[in-house]
Design goal:
With 134 residues, the chain is mainly alpha-helical. It has 7 helices and no strands. Helix 2 crosses helix 3 (55-63) and helix 4 (73-92) runs parallel beside helix 7 (119-130).
Length: 134
């Protein structure tokens, strides 16, 4: 799940954060993720499962006591998740992101938010929505 080290990953600006250095990208990814949670109705437990971290880790992100570590697995997954949110917002509008994440999709056999817990499915879902899906 390479995001292109040294380059800001796609999708880090939708929720108002910009970054250029690896440390700034990790901090921006943390901020964007935390901002996206309430805006897209994403529960902390789902974020923890998607990132492969504990709920406490996500709580620390939310409280600003922790930032994602650049190039770590949770960072890579967060970037894919944000790219997915960006793609959904571009396709259906920001107001529809939560509905799409929580809605059933036949090709997935599950709601996207739940299916994204699997790293391979997360990548596939990202590609599906970035490709214009429907």
């Amino acid at each position: 799940m390479d995001t292109g080290e040294g380059h800001p990953p796609d999708g880090l600006t939708t929720f108002g954060a910009e970054a250029s250095s690896p440390h700034e990208m990790a901090a921006a990814a943390s901020v964007v993720l935390v901002r996206a949670m309430p805006e897209c109705s994403i529960p902390a437990d789902d974020v923890a499962a998607i990132l492969g971290v504990s709920p406490r880790y996500v709580d620390e992100l939310v409280r600003g006591e922790r930032v994602l570590e650049f190039a770590s697995s949770p960072y890579e997954r967060a970037v894919l998740m944000m790219r997915t949110l960006d793609a959904i917002a571009a396709l259906f509008g920001l107001d529809s992101v939560a509905e799409v994440l929580h809605g059933p999709y036949e090709w997935l056999g599950d709601r996207p938010l739940h299916a994204m817990r699997d790293p391979v499915a997360l990548r596939d879902i990202t590609q599906y929505f970035e490709g214009g899906c429907c």
